[in-house]
Amino acid sequence: MNQQKETFFHVRDLTKVYQMGEVEVHALRGVNMELFAGELVVLLGPSGSGKSTLLNIMGGLDTATDGFVSYRGQELTKATQKELTEYRRFHVGFVFQFYNLISSLTARENVSVVTEIAPNPMAPERALDLVELGDRLNHFPSQLSGGEQQRVAIARAISKNPAVLLCDEPTGALDSKTGIVVLQALERINRELGTATAIITHNVDIAGMADRVIHLSNGKIAEVTFNKVKKSASELQW
């Protein structure tokens, strides 16, 4: 299946070493992987396994110590800061564990912050409809639950019509019931918009909704598995 789809990311021999005083911390130790158009991938592993570092390098938020990362033929590992800024702005949507909403702005206004700088944005109302918050446009973050705030953050991320959505522990701050609602929003975006989606998590139960699961351990890919039968987000429980 994946051979017939465009390869969005090529990652080869990727390493990342952080200098912590006199100690070298090896966050990534020679990672090789691909991410394909329209795919929903879960990067699964315990804390400290290198998941966030890998996602941040793919998203242009961090740089590699060594190795190669390309996005649709653009080599990110050789990109300038200006090129990385443009790459992040035009091609990638980010969802983090914490919502980072602007408290003085409504849901619609929080999404509009992104649409005003994107070259081909969707209307904020459309983005909020996709995460089933069309009736909360004028609510401020303090008037929304944690799950609703995370869905506003997802709407903000997708409102610039990114080809790729990178999600770092998007349910990490939520209870399971609320987390599943958030995962349903991500699932719907992947299905309806065809957005290539990578979700990193330490929660093994979330892996059931993926096309492919990349297992990380100690900065390396330990295993790659495929779900012959994907679960819908609504079937998940933990």
Structure description:
By secondary structure, the protein is α/β, with parallel strands linked by helices. The protein has a single domain, classed as P-loop containing nucleotide triphosphate hydrolases (Rossmann fold, 3-Layer(aba) Sandwich), CATH 3.40.50.300. The chain has 6 helices and 10 strands, in the order βββαββαβαααβαβββ. The strands form 2 sheets. A 6-stranded mixed beta sheet has the order 6-7-8-3-9-10, with helices on both faces. Strands 2-1-4-5 form a 4-stranded antiparallel beta sheet, covered by helices on one side. Strand 9 and strand 10 form a beta hairpin. Helix 3 (107-115) packs across helix 4, helix 4 crosses helix 5 (146-158) and helix 5 runs parallel beside helix 6. The longest helix has 18 residues, at 176-193. It is globular, with a radius of gyration of 17 Å. The model has no long low-confidence stretch (mean pLDDT 94).
Give helix % range.
25-40%
| Helix-strand topology string | EEEHEEHEHHHEHEEE
Task: Provide mean pLDDT, rounded.
Answer: 94
Tally of separate domains: 1
Counting helices, strands and paired strands, the structural category is: alpha/beta
Based on CA inertia axes, which overall geometry fits? Answer: globular
**Largest sheet features:** 6 strands, mixed
CATH topology: Rossmann fold
Assess the beta-strand content as a share of residues.
25-35%
Strand order, sheet with most strands:
6-7-8-3-9-10
CATH class descriptor name:
Alpha Beta
Please report the total strand number as a whole number: 10
Termini separation comes to: 30 Å
Superfamily (CATH H level) name: P-loop containing nucleotide triphosphate hydrolases
CATH architecture tag: 3-Layer(aba) Sandwich
What Rg do the Cα atoms give?
Answer: 17 Å
Secondary structure tally, helices: 6
Sequence stretches where pLDDT stays below 50 over 5 or more residues = none
